[in-house]
Amino acid sequence: MKQWNYRYTDRESFEAYIKEKGVEKSDSLLIQITTGEADAERVDTIRDEILRVLPFAVIIGMGSALQLCEGDFSLKETVLTLTLFEKSHLSEWSFVLPPDEECDADRVAQLLASHVTDDTKGILLFTNAVSADIESLFIACRSYISIPVFGGLASSFDPDNPSPFVISTEKVFCEDAAVAVLLKGEALSIHFSRLFAWESIGKEFTVTRAEGRRLYELDGKNIMDVYSKYFGPLTRERLLYLSLAHPFIRHSKEFGEVSRVLLQYDGECGIYTGRFEEGEKVQIGFGNYKKMVDCTDRSRELFSQIPMEAFWGFACISYMRGYTDLLKKSLLPYRKNFPSIHFAITFGEFGWIDGINSFMNNTIVRVSLSEDPEARFVIEDVDIDLDEKDRLLETLSTLVTSSSREIIELNRYLEEEVKKRTQELADLNASLARRIEQEVQRNREKDKMLYHQSKLAAMGEMINNIAHQWRQPLNIIALVMQDLSLKSKLGNLTPEMVVLAEKKINDTLKYLSDTIDDFRSFASEREESSRPGRFEAGKMIKDAIRLISVVLEDVHIRLRLELPEIDCEVNGRANDLKQVILNLVYNAIDILKEREIENPEITIGMRCDGKVILYVHDNGGGIEKELLDKIFEPYFTTKYQSRGSGLGLYMSKMIVEKRFKGEIEVKNCPEGACFEIKIPVAAVVA
Question: What pTM was computed for the model?
Answer without folding.
Answer: 0.60
